Automatic annotation (TrEMBL):
Residues 149-165 have a biased composition (Basic and acidic residues). Residues 149-176 are annotated as: Disordered. Residues 3-169 form the Flavodoxin-like domain. The lineage of its organism: Bacteria, Bacillati, Actinomycetota, Actinomycetes, Mycobacteriales. This is Flavodoxin family protein. InterPro entries: Flavodoxin/NO_synth, Flavodoxin_CS, Flavoprotein-like_sf. It comes from the Bacteria.
Amino acid sequence: MRVLVVYESMYGNTRHVAEAIARGAESGATVRVVAASDAHEVNPSEYDLLVVGGPTHIHGMSRESTRRGAVEAAQQPDSGLKVEPDAESEGVREWLAFLESSGGRAAAFDTRLDASPLLTGRASKTIARKLRHLGFSAAAEPESFLVDKETNLEAGEEERAERWGRSLVTSEEGVP
């Protein structure tokens, strides 16, 4: 089995989750992890499973203005935030808009604040919907990995991401 993990990350958390998902999936697959800003060079149809994730910004997927806001937040005195090198590049939203209709299995994930999804939103739900519209069948329900108010991954989230990645390659029946 071949798995492609495409992610977008502002402060590194979503990248860490993507890498953890890949570690878990490597138990039963060959895995490639690619930032959304570099994903235009990859053909998802060459993979058996596509896993796509990004941070939740203002109840959904990031956009140019929210990515710019994340960078500006990191530039504030005493912010303690460090942005990823490609944080202001095109993200998952733009990459998905670029993709042509395809097929196969896919799963979506996000990182979001550890609070009720009614308050935070979930980028993974929008990612999953866009993947369905592109002809992918769901390999799993959309998944969220949680960060605290200082934007650090909550304890145990990387391990949970590894388990989720492992489950994606051991379950082939998909989700209705």
